[in-house]
# Entry
Amino acid sequence: MHYTTLISTEALAGSLADPSLVIVDCRHNLSDPDAGEAAYRSAHLPGAVFLHLDRDLSGTKTGHNGRHPLPDAAALVDTLGRVGIGSHTQVVAYDQNAGMWASRLWWLLRWLGHERVAVLDGGLDKWLSEARRVDANVFAPRPTRFEAKTPRATSPATADEILQHLDDATLTVLDARAPERFRGDMEPIDPVAGHIPGALSRPYLGNLTAQGTFKSAQALRHEFEAQLEDRVPASVVHQCGSGVTACHNLLAMEVAGLHGSRLYPGSWSEWSSDGSRPIARGG
# Structure
């Protein structure tokens, strides 16, 4: 197995016996942080382990670094090894359907230089719709050693970097939040509504077909190129509310063959925590 962006349910079902494979359940619910783990204990893909967005895939919040800051790299390395992910493991991350939580693990592994990681296209919903087997047994992983490598993913963007380049057109922010949150019409989570000045709106759900799977590489490339016009992928920084769904847009650009875009992990929850940073509203 060597999957680096997406994997189909059919391909995964045919590879469950592969000894290099580790499947990770990433289901989460912002309004009920225990719901994902409870769902995992009820039923999950065969042999899957569970990683929690808050506990395992995020770091310590300070009030100024966003709602889901990046975990300490050394702590993440330990977490990955604990659940059986080694340097040569093929990782498949999944969530309920859209891939919004699974794409966070996908990006984190790339951040540590691990390329063999893919998101299950369509998630658990598609797996169940095809009457594929699930398991209620909590799998005890075999711990191993994970070694971070020189990352393929470029370094994360920072608030200071974005602030420095707001007016020089060398950096373009793509905002993955819903249009009404981008415009500042409403803000259900963070205390301030609006968006980073100059940002473009690209709601992450636009990456999916009506069936809940990712659009084709050709369709995604056409859409991103139309929105970005003559901007190069390496100039793009992805942002959302807290650095999670932004990974979905980054994954979609990779699927489209538009390589080199970056993540702003703090995203709107970090940006808006400092009243000195400018805020825009409207379309």
Residues 162 and 168 are 10 Å apart (CA to CA). The chain has a mean pLDDT of 95. The longest strand covers residues 21-25.
